[in-house]
Amino acid sequence: MKALNTLTMSGAEVLPLVEGGKGISISTGVSAGAWAAAGGVGTVSLVNADSYDDQGDLVPQIYHGRTRRERHEELVDYAIRGGISQVRIAHEMSGGRGRLHANFLWEMGGAERVISGVLEGAPGLIHGLTCGAGMPYRLADLAAKFGVYYYPIVSSGRALSALWKRSFRKVSELLGGVVYEDPWYAGGHNGFSNTENPLCVEDPYQRVRALRQVMREFGLHKTPIIMAGGVWWLEEWEAWIDNDELGPIVFQFGTRPLLTHESPIPEAWKQRLRQLRKGDVHINRFSPTGFYSSAVNNSFLQELKERSERQVAFSVEAQEEFTVPYPIGERGREVFITSEDRHRVQHWADQGYVKALITPDSTLIFVTPDKAHEIVSDQARCMGCLSQCRFSNWSQQGPEYTNGHKPDPRSFCIQKTLQAIAHADGHDQDKIVDHNLMFSGANAWRFGEDPFYMNGFVPTVAQLVDRIMTGR
Length: 472
Prior knowledge:
Helix content: 25-40%
Number of domains: 2
Number of strands: 18
Distance between the termini: 9 Å
């Protein structure tokens, strides 16, 4: 394999290897610090990061506010304190080597407040800001305010073009690189456009080449593109290295660092990674963000799929084919469904799915009484972890603090499930991992087939980086 040469990122010479940011409590200061210490770019997730008390014990993120707005303020405070804690840990572990970036979602609740609070509380410790899940037009302004580099996450040249023309061109000197996140292979939330089909995989080379063409139009010939999604063995990407057509390329690893000593995920999660087979990771659209996302097809995802399949249209008045009255809610309010759907509803009721919940699309879904109680309770306990949430109808924009739509019971509380799986402990680990959202890149099945992980071997981050540098 061709030799990997260092390049300049965020003001320092580093290996062209980046740790991908991974949501709540997964890309921690420990994992990021170890990656930076190995000579690459470590990434701390600032999405509701863990904080610790004076004794070093984890501070549970428990909410006491009576309203969503009050709980949202608590969430922002937790996120700032957690972010500062993790960044300081990463800085200490890195020993001044490599670079440290902070990753966040533009559509997370209070994003700008959180990032500003962390940068103010840990001055000089973060070298770059990586941001996706939305169109972060103000990312460049944040970078300029604090004198750090910025790395927008995009899935097409068109997205970068819109960001450049509206904002980035004004702060071009701090644009450290552009992350191309492949929507078919990357884990977590995916940036599909309305014209792209999640079932029709496109060649990443052609998409990255098109991205570079756009960047050259803006004079960004030497600005690195970070390839994110689907990268496993670098020998499979050898044609990308020192390729004049693509320009400087950096490789991002999000999934592989999950199975390391420094990875904080529960042991049951690590074991599940070894058991995955090709096709076990699915692209779905259940996320309360409204984005597509990539996750392991476990019991959690299967329940959401089945929940949406138990769905019928309804009308508030009798009309055309909607002639059969059906009572919903505690007061038995009458709506109308079709005679054909009445048979389906009865079949579901015979199986225990007797509670009807209204969706924003004038449909009813049918769930068990326990599941209905869980859904309604989760909606009521919303803490505003997103800028807008289709599950609870929260919006961080006043004066109403609502997105104007009915809450969608076909989705879920993303904060609850990601906190649960990240902090699974004790004898119930296997159950918790199976019944909560497990984000994953499409290539996670390769853990079970890669000889590197034979006989239960779990590498340190340093060993993983060394292995990556061999091409395999």
